[in-house]
Write a structure and sequence with these properties.
Order of helices and strands of chain B: HHHHEEHHHHEEEEHHE
Structural class of chain B: mainly alpha
Mean pLDDT of chain C: 94
Distance between the termini of chain B: 73 Å
Order of helices and strands of chain C: EEEEEEE
Number of domains of chain B: 1
Largest interface: A-B, 20 and 23 residues
CATH superfamily of chain C: Immunoglobulins
Number of strands of chain B: 7
Oligomer: heterotrimer
Distance between the termini of chain C: 25 Å
CATH class of chain B: Mainly Alpha
Chain lengths: 103, 284, 103
Amino acid sequence: MSMIGNAAFAALLLTSGATQALAASEADFKAAYEAAKTAENRAAALHNRWTTTEVALTTAKTAAAAGDFDAAIAAAKDAEALAKASIFQATSEKERWKDAEIR
Amino acid sequence: MPVQVLILPLLAALALALLVHPAPAADAPNPVADAKAFKTYFATKFPKLKLEDFVNGPYSMSEDMRRQWQEKEQFPPYEFALEAGKQMFATPFKNGRTYADCFPNSGIGIRQNYPYFDEKQGKVVTLELALNRCREANGEALYSYVEDEMASLTAYMAVTSRGKPMNIKIPNDPRALEAYEDGKRYFYTRRGQLNFSCASCHIQGPGERLRAEILAPALGIMNALPIYRSEWGGMGTTSRRLITCNSQTRAVPLDPQSDEYRDLEYYLSYMSNGLPISGPGARP
Amino acid sequence: MASTIRVRATVNGELTEVQTLIRHPMDTGLVKDAQGAIVPAHFIQQLTFEHNGKTVFLADWGPAVSKDPYVKFGFKGAAKGDDLKIRWVDNLGATDTITTKIQ
């Protein structure tokens, strides 16, 4: 049998595995946050940001800072969805507004 | 060839043409026609109201509210702001000049002419902007567009114009027409997560309730500004109202006096041409 | 300094109608400012109206009264030209008084 006992070996495997999982989460968060930020910047360029998108971005950042990457990623994905919806709103309203006009 | 054979395809073509709703083309802007349609829309929706009644917002929409408001107007909540504004207006700047030096007719009885299109700069100038430019030109620090000082000043200038008809001009300048069109587009464009446009509440909803508030009609809505809002416990500028309207639909507001807001004020004020200035106003 | 009390008292038949608008923040002490600090309680505690040395109206107020309070009431027994004295005291000990002629 190896130098380190079974239990120790298992523990070693677990720790390395766990660290890998954590690192992946942070990287996942960064990717999700970047995607959300990119979309929000596009919304900003269209002068059409939503307050709720901003709140979701802040929630994501705060959760990440506290190490809760699951919550952070969820919030970042929310933010991305909201930002994309606001972009859709801005682009579709470019023509749709005319439907409402009093003529 | 027999006429009947010709008529059928002709009729079909006509029917088709009528069926296909012509896409709102990029027609030449026609503010005069727009304003007429705007007023007709509201006159039809509220046949019992006279045109000038619309400047009182929700008070023309509810008898009970109107009664309470008229009682309060004997001793209006904006009295303090008015007094402060009058005093501020008369107080000279450090260099000895006053606001009167910046405005036609010494700034008295001119509120109904704002916003106007500055052809030199190619942009819309609102009253709030003009006041701050006056301060800047005389070496004074600018006032916030959303706080008390600007509200008091514009309240005073509004009261000197009470009863005068709104008198917005659109010069024969393509840039002015563009600003007007931009304002119109802003008004009808949905924004914020709640997906409301200004029109959602103020064209579709006047007289209806939004939570506990009765919505005001868009016609005449600029005439009562600035307003003392019980909700704010104080006086608020046009800028403040536009910003809060934005955040209420969950849209991140733009900077006060940004192009969109200036153009919006231009468009809305023009729609209310002929209606009397009723500001400063008091609202729930 | 300008008075915080705006008042108008008019005789109407047997009754004298009084309207008052008082400039006062009426802070409840429960609101936080932008920095998160509590805005200290600052509200009128007592408001009195005196005619011919007699108190015709007395109000004991608390934080439930809104900013810039408005009061309207009527009382009997006064005539045009009489004095009406109004006084308020707040929880910080500040006070203001004004005397007006009944019209």
